[in-house]
Write a structure and sequence with these properties.
42% strand; 5-stranded mixed β-sheet; OB fold (Dihydrolipoamide Acetyltransferase, E2P); 177 residues; mainly beta
Length: 177
């Protein structure tokens, strides 16, 4: 095979798909997933990997939504069940249950946490102007976790704030000795 033939096989941006996902030339990308039949999304640039569900090592006195920790190539990663954290259904684990491992980079540090979700759906390409602010009325997901809302056809996808998802609330436990 000569160099000209090889050059002719190089994909042009926007023309080809890679494993079913089209190359995207503009906008922000979000990974969508399901929690109790509701669609949510996170910034795809924060996604380290998507892992199949495995039982993590339990942490004593942790909040109920923290399922434990896993060892991911030498990094200890806390695993948070978003269904329990957001109070949207019971914690049940099936073949489609996965852990989305997210890393949020701050100026001087980064934090990696895994989030248990029912299933991964799709990758969305969204223009910034298409993200709507979330309404002020209450819901099961606290407002600090919501970045905005995205209309996708007849569905509304809740865009989650990765920085706030990384925060673990202080947990008071009863230490009766």
């Amino acid at each position: 095979m000569d160099i000209q033939e090889l050059a002719g096989n190089i994909p042009v941006e926007g023309e080809y798909s890679l494993e079913g996902i089209d190359f995207i030339t503009s906008g922000e990308q979000y990974l969508t997933f399901l929690l109790a039949n509701e669609q949510y999304a996170v910034d795809i640039l924060c996604v380290e990997e998507i892992r199949s569900w495995e039982q993590p090592t339990k942490i004593p006195n942790a909040p109920s939504y923290i399922k434990g920790v896993i060892n991911m190539r030498g990094i200890i990663v806390p695993i948070v069940d978003l269904r329990l954290k957001f109070n949207v259904g019971k914690a049940s684990y099936h073949d489609t249950t996965v852990v989305i491992v997210l890393t949020y980079h701050r100026e001087e540090s980064s934090r990696t946490i895994g989030f248990v979700v029912d299933a991964v759906s799709d990758v969305l390409n969204v223009e910034t102007q298409d993200i709507q602010s979330s309404p002020a009325f209450g819901g099961c997901v606290q407002p600090q976790y919501i970045e905005g809302l995205i209309n996708v056809g007849k569905n509304v996808v809740t865009l989650l704030n990765v920085e706030h998802l990384q925060e673990v609330e202080k947990h008071a436990f009863n230490a009766n000795f």
